[in-house]
Specification:
Layout: H1 9-25, H2 30-47, H3 55-70, H4 74-88
Helix pairs in contact: 1-2, 1-3, 2-4, 3-4
């Protein structure tokens, strides 16, 4: 089984199509950022029990959030930060649903 914290070429490609495009052309492609967020949400499912999060994942989340804030899309930027917060406490994107109370 492949460690989900190893370098991920698909993540690198999605990062380049979204963040890279913004940095190179100042062109915000929200669909690419949405695809990146969906990929990271799926990845959170496989690393939620790990004791560490790869630097590549953290960098992708922070760079996406910073790029979106610079472009004025704070709503989408906050979704990336929220995902990072979930990952840090060992949870996945599917563990929390908006408007649904958590029972511990």
């Amino acid at each position: 089984m492949r460690n989900s914290n190893h370098f991920d070429t698909e993540l690198e490609d999605l990062t380049d199509r979204s963040i890279g495009k913004w940095l190179k052309q100042q062109s915000l492609d929200t669909d690419s950022f949405g695809a990146l967020l969906a990929f990271l949400e799926a990845k959170s499912e496989s690393i939620n029990n790990n004791s560490a999060i790869s630097k590549q994942v953290i960098k992708a989340i922070l760079d996406a959030s910073n790029s979106l804030e610079a472009a004025g899309n704070n709503e989408l930027a906050s979704k990336f930060i929220y995902l990072l917060e979930l990952m840090v406490i060992g949870e996945a994107a599917s563990d929390r649903k908006k408007g649904v109370p958590r029972i511990i």
